[in-house]
Amino acid sequence: MFDTERWAVLAPLLQAATAGRDLLDDTIRRLTPAAVARAVADEIKDIKADVRLDLRFDGKITSHLTTGAEVVIALDLADAVRGLYGTDERPWPSLAVRTPEGEVDPANPGAWFRARTGIGPAVDAVLSALRPGSEDLGSLAVAFGSDKWGDLHWYTQHYERHFARLRTEPVRVLEIGIGGYDDPDRGGGSLRMWQRFFRRGLVHGLDTTAKNVTGPRLMAIQGDQSDAEFLDRLGRELGPFDVIVDDGSHLNEHVQISFHALFPHVRSGGLYVVEDLQTAYWPNWGGHPEAGHGTSMGMLKSFVDGLNRAEVGDPRGGGSYLERNISGISFHHNIAFVEKGLNEEEGGPAFLRTLC
Ligand SMILES: C[S@@+](CC[C@H](N)C(=O)[O-])C[C@H]1O[C@@H](n2cnc3c(N)ncnc32)[C@H](O)[C@@H]1O
Known about the structure:
It contains 14 helices and 11 strands. It has 2 domains: 4-130, 2-Layer Sandwich (Nonspecific Lipid-transfer Protein, Chain A), CATH 3.30.1050; 137-353, Rossmann fold (3-Layer(aba) Sandwich). The N and C termini lie far apart (59 Å). The protein is an alpha/beta fold. The protein has a 7-stranded mixed sheet, sandwiched between helices. It has a 4-stranded mixed sheet with strand order 2-1-3-4. The structure holds S-adenosylmethionine. S-adenosylmethionine (SAM) binds next to strand 5, helix 9 and strand 6. GO terms for molecular function: methyltransferase activity. This is Class I SAM-dependent methyltransferase.
């Protein structure tokens, strides 16, 4: 039902990119150099540059981008993988760039230099794409057309803070709500934003509409966030996820169904984020001005008491699944971050409870 084969090459490659060179080479051999070279080429296929990229591995070369171009960037495949998905700032020891010699007119040598105009920017465009930097998430939201910053919402500042420790990890991300509503060709802004932000991330989007949103590390899934059975299957087949973001219908009932179905599929140390919590206060969306029991905010508020259950009982015995596995909650305007982790800290000493 889900395209679980989609990540067969990428998932192990993203892991191996930060390993030692021998392990990375072994992984490339196991996945096949041709498949790995395709994954690398897929990351930079939108670069418009009259440049050929030659990727070398075990003495064999595959050519990519503009295969007939005179300007050639040659790189070991493992170096390219490390540049794209690695985390260190090591140079590319195998990098070589061949440019056309051209004819030099001794009477007008300046013409030789002028003829080379554009080579530098073209080579730089390819090499920059092969070593993505750490762009600001707000700028990425605006660039890719998500409303998480710059218009309507101001969420990316909070995401930056809470996701900082995950940014360079090989994370699995799921966002409910791809955007563009019933238009298959619209939306995908935030998925593209996450794909860039998490350079080692595999990004999944869920929407009721089948979406034509593609990317080297993107998967669009059609389904309904109010279908708990479907969500559980999705979690079992494509999870566990390090990050889940609910930016779907924002109906209070849906938010709660999704949370209960998907939170078990968040990895320990991961985060479940709920956006647009203003609807918890709006009756037309299933909310209430007090945002109590039955609303999405009411559900999240109840987790706060769960965090401190050791003060009224035994932290190691009993307690619901959520009480035992939510280790932190952060609230900001209209957005909450729920942290998954063991909640088994001891309560205060018994004598203190009766002291006052
Ligand atoms: C606000 S948009 C998402 C915007 C996107 N996350 C972004 O930041 O660019 C909400 C999306 O949720 C989808 N949606 C609405 N109800 C849904 C449901 N029950 N299950 C899944 N997706 C739903 C809509 O089709 C719409 O595309």
